[in-house]
């Protein structure tokens, strides 16, 4: 409820440009608490009873854990579903297309993501093995004040990142209400729509407190299709390879033409 209370206020920011500060704070907190996690792990050292074996004792359990881990990775790296929304806010002209700064931003973002995830994953597994919890901060336990500070940084990070992912949803809902149901676009519409959305997500979150166990499921169900599969579907649609008359050579030729085609920003 405390988390949702923040979003009852932040959700009424109108667009991506207005949440720049929130996004920057979230990114900073992510880098900070991940640094705390791996440095505290190094300080604690390799545990005397550490084990690096599989947590599951059966083949079925190992396969399930493998696919669950893939879902976790898909969830962690699911940023492409908001990339187009972010790029739409960048000024673009024929002389200075938006794809230039957008490409630099994406590279920088993935560098930050790598700095957050890889040290925690590698060092955490080295120090604690298969006994590490869903949150490595729970495994660390001490020093208590540092873990509490890291947990606070996690909360700030999640608050900011939620706004980034929720903004396209807000836009979709308001567009649907205006164009399909013919509501008048105004502040009252935005206030009611976004408040109801935050209240609904708060209700669902209270019903499902074991979020860590759902990461793999959510990653496979929601984030993997929008992040990875959508590009393949778009490519198939552009190349029109669904027709049985297309041969392997013609598909290769079409791919070459698409690669060499100069993409112009609107």
UniProtKB/TrEMBL annotation:
The chain crosses the membrane at residues 107-125, 145-165, 197-224. It comes from the Eukaryota. It holds the Pfam family Aa_trans. Residues 1-229 form the Amino acid transporter transmembrane domain. One of its GO terms (biological process) is amino acid transmembrane transport. It is found in: Membrane. This is Amino acid transporter transmembrane domain-containing protein. The lineage of its organism: Eukaryota, Viridiplantae, Streptophyta, Embryophyta, Tracheophyta.
């Amino acid at each position: 409820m405390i988390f949702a209370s923040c979003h009852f206020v932040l959700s009424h920011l109108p667009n991506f440009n207005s949440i720049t500060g929130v996004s920057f704070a979230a990114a900073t907190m992510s880098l900070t608490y991940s640094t705390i996690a791996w440095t505290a792990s190094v300080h604690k050292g390799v545990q005397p009873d550490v084990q690096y074996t599989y947590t599951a004792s059966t083949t079925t359990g190992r396969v399930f854990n493998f696919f669950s881990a893939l879902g976790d990775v898909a969830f962690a790296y699911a940023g492409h579903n908001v990339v187009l929304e972010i790029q739409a806010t960048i000024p673009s002209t024929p002389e200075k297309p938006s794809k230039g700064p957008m490409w630099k931003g994406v590279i920088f973002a993935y560098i930050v993501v790598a700095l957050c995830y890889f040290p925690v994953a590698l060092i955490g597994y080295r120090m604690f093995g298969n006994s590490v919890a869903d949150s490595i901060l729970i495994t660390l336990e001490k020093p208590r004040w540092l873990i509490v500070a890291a947990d606070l940084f996690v909360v700030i990070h999640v608050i900011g990142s939620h706004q980034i992912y929720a903004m396209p949803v807000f836009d979709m809902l308001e567009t649907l209400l205006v164009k399909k149901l013919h509501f008048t676009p105004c502040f009252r519409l935005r206030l009611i729509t976004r408040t109801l959305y935050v209240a609904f997500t708060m209700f669902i979150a209270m019903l499902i407190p074991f979020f860590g166990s759902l990461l793999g499921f959510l990653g496979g169900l929601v984030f993997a299709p929008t992040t990875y599969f959508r590009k393949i579907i778009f490519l198939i649609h552009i190349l029109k390879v669904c027709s049985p008359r297309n041969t392997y050579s013609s598909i290769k030729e079409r791919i070459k033409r698409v690669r060499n085609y100069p993409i112009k920003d609107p």
